[in-house]
Design brief:
Heterotrimer of A, B and C subunits. Keywords: ATP-binding, Ligase, Nucleotide-binding, Protein biosynthesis, Transferase. One of its GO terms (cellular component) is glutamyl-tRNA(Gln) amidotransferase complex. Belongs to the amidase family. GatA subfamily. Pfam families: Amidase. The model has no long low-confidence stretch (mean pLDDT 97). Strand 10 and strand 11 form a beta hairpin. Helix 6 runs antiparallel to helix 14 and helix 8 crosses helix 11. The protein has 14 helices and 11 strands. The chain has an 11-stranded mixed β-sheet, with helices on both faces. The relative contact order is 0.15. With 446 residues, the protein is an alpha/beta fold. It has a domain of 202 residues: Amidase signature (AS) enzymes. It binds glutamine.
């Protein structure tokens, strides 16, 4: 832990992955673990980890990269933190992200932009860009992110690491600062598939604090990991290699399909016809949920309160005006609009109907196939500053990642090649609660 923190301070001068360090407490924890002795059955004991800054950490500043929470210190831990402590992992700090997890590049952070360790002029992806960069730069072997519409998988793809968005209901969201509650999921970001499977098993499971967690036994995700892919049926959606996908990305995915065939799997073209409506429907649903979830930041209960105010209404308006960044405001307005009485049927309800059709698309494919493969993002990492002023271009980059959240399915991002020195990510999507088959295929491919 000491070495990790020393190295972190050097590396992070270039990468800017961390918002808050947990130096003193981490060293204390590591010492206590040493004194207690390491349980040989616990592969995670004593390992330094990094945690995205929208996961609440008791007595450790948690900002969601927003000015409105700049000085917020939670009074309780997220359930995921309790699992982290129970497994003797050592959190060394909180990582940078897009404000309230809204974005895909960490450029929406109120505090700083994280750099891609492969090329410091490029974004690391987002919103879990700090966690991705911390693993990719070799600072920690394990980090935690959250994924509402790709925020674990896309930064994993941009930085050449492995990131899992588990099935909705697999991991407790208690203590995760809510963005889109029907889409959000916490998951592990690691260097290898097997590490990822080990970490997921440690944080998954039913939680009485989160009514959407499913009371199912958590399998040993590493049990079948070396079984190979012989006999597996993998679908490759034609919509995932269409227009807008960078040629090198397409080539890497086609090469991956060939590799799976060589390893004994069947890979065939399939169709997810409603994918093309995914981005539009996702931005309506996620923004609607966000507009409701973010009402609690009123300048009274948490974080920063505007000073020099005239009355109560002024406290609300000024705190929110000064505390939220432009992207967060944009989403709140979009969400409020699509939920308002006169527009509900045209927007929110329509988006919810599209969501059902997207789920049905997946169900149709999974009736015949074990897995779906494709790219994570249409491109490799782009330049810092390149897209930030154009929200619609940013949103379009989520086309291949949001369907998984809309359907509540598990999706893994893993490295599948390089273009001009930048990593390309492949996505493996599984049936609900079948992370095991995803890991099995990912491990065979790696
Ligand atoms: N880029 C997407 C968005 O901005 C996804 C964010 C996420 O998964 N948290 O909404």
């Amino acid at each position: 832990t000491k070495q990790t923190i020393t190295a972190l301070k050097e590396t992070d001068k270039k990468v800017d992955a961390f918002l808050t360090l947990n130096e003193e407490k981490a060293l204390e924890m590591a010492k206590a673990i040493d004194e207690k002795g390491i349980d040989p059955a616990n592969l995670l004991a004593g390992i330094p980890v990094a945690v995205k800054d929208n996961i609440m950490t008791k007595d450790l500043r948690t900002t969601a990269a927003s000015k409105i929470l700049e000085n917020f210190v939670p009074v309780y831990d997220a359930t995921v933190m309790e699992h982290i402590y129970a497994h003797d992992m050592v959190p060394i700090g909180k990582t940078n992200m897009d404000e309230f997890a809204m974005g895909g590049s960490t450029e929406n952070s109120a505090f700083k932009t994280t750099k891609n360790p492969w090329n410091l002029t490029k974004v690391p992806g987002g919103s879990s860009g700090g966690s991705a960069a911390a693993v990719s730069a070799g600072i920690v072997p394990i980090a935690f992110g959250s994924d509402t519409g790709g925020s674990i998988r896309q930064p994993a793809s941009f930085t050449g690491i492995v990131g899992m968005k588990p099935t909705y209901g697999r991991v407790s969201r208690w203590g995760l600062i809510a963005f889109g509650s029907s889409l959000d999921e916490i998951g592990p970001m690691t260097r290898s598939v097997k590490d990822n499977a080990t970490v997921l098993a440690a944080i998954a499971g039913f939680d009485e604090h989160d009514g959407t967690t499913v009371n199912k036994k958590v399998p040993d995700f590493t049990a079948n990991i070396a079984k190979g892919v012989k006999g597996l049926k993998i679908g490759l959606p034609k919509e995932y290699l269409g227009e807008g996908v960078q040629p090198e990305v397409k080539a890497a995915i086609l090469a991956a399909a060939d590799k799976f065939r060589e390893l004994g799997a069947t890979v065939e073209e399939v169709s997810l016809p409603h994918s093309k409506y995914g981005v539009a429907a996702y931005y309506i649903i996620s923004s609607s949920e966000a507009s409701s979830n973010l009402q609690r930041f009123d300048g009274i209960r948490y974080g920063v309160r505007a000073t020099d105010v005239k009355n109560l209404n002024d406290v609300y308006v000024r705190s929110r005006t000064e505390g939220f960044g432009p992207e967060v405001k944009r989403r709140i307005m979009l969400g409020m609009y699509s939920l308002s009485a006169g527009y509900y049927d045209a927007y929110f309800k329509k988006a919810a109907q599209v969501r059902t059709l997207m789920k049905q698309d997946f169900a149709n494919v999974f009736a015949d196939y074990d897995l779906i493969m494709g790219p994570v993002a249409p491109t490799t990492a782009y330049g810092i500053g390149e897209d930030v002023s154009d929200p619609l271009t940013m949103y379009a980059g989520d086309v291949l990642s949001v369907p998984v959240n809309m359907a509540g399915l598990p999706g893994l991002s893993l490295p599948a090649g390089f273009a001009a020195g930048l990593p390309i990510g492949m996505q493996l999507i599984g049936k609900a609660f079948d992370e095991q088959t995803i890991y099995q295929a990912g491990y065979a491919f790696e």
